[in-house]
Amino acid sequence: MSTPPPSDVSASPEVVEIERALYRITYLSSRARQHERLMAAAGVPLDRAGAALLRKMADAEPMRPGELAARLGVEASHVTRTVQHLERSGHVVRVPDPEDRRAQRIELTDAGREAVVRIREAGVRGMQAALAHWDPDDLRQLAGLFHRMVDDFLAHAEAMDVESPTTG
């Protein structure tokens, strides 16, 4: 087993523990079995890619496939295949882009919006069950800290994008 290269920045023990906790929660939430349980509880038969695409679209205006791929951090070909599957299942439709009639945007249908609601509700029920013994003040504090952390991660990522733009 090789030793990782030394870091230029020494991290505080608290940041190391946060990274470890985030890894654990990401691993738990991305497991196939967990996804299958969530979809079964929601009554929505979607694969992980389809569910992720619907959730991302629910928080934004209709967008072009390339923009959707960028926001999801995946290749455009992955979005194309997923959109085709979601079109066949009635969760999304392609609509003309009002800024360029030759281009298309992807839009949720009523069925797509309902699927997102059901997925989110099932996720909240599962989280509520797991955290039922937590004090409401602790839950409020955790929610606030999570939002603050995500906002800081996003700001950092945007700053990194400005400092070193990628060429395509």
From TrEMBL:
GO terms for biological process: response to stress. SMART domains: HTH_MARR. SUPFAM superfamilies: Winged helix' DNA-binding domain. InterPro entries: HTH_MarR-typ (IPR000835), MarR/SlyA-like (IPR039422), WH-like_DNA-bd_sf (IPR036388), WH_DNA-bd_sf (IPR036390). One of its GO terms (molecular function) is DNA-binding transcription factor activity. Pfam families: MarR. Residues 15-151 form the HTH marR-type domain. PANTHER family: MARR-FAMILY TRANSCRIPTIONAL REGULATOR (PTHR33164:SF57), TRANSCRIPTIONAL REGULATOR, MARR FAMILY (PTHR33164). This is MarR family transcriptional regulator. It comes from Actinospica acidiphila.
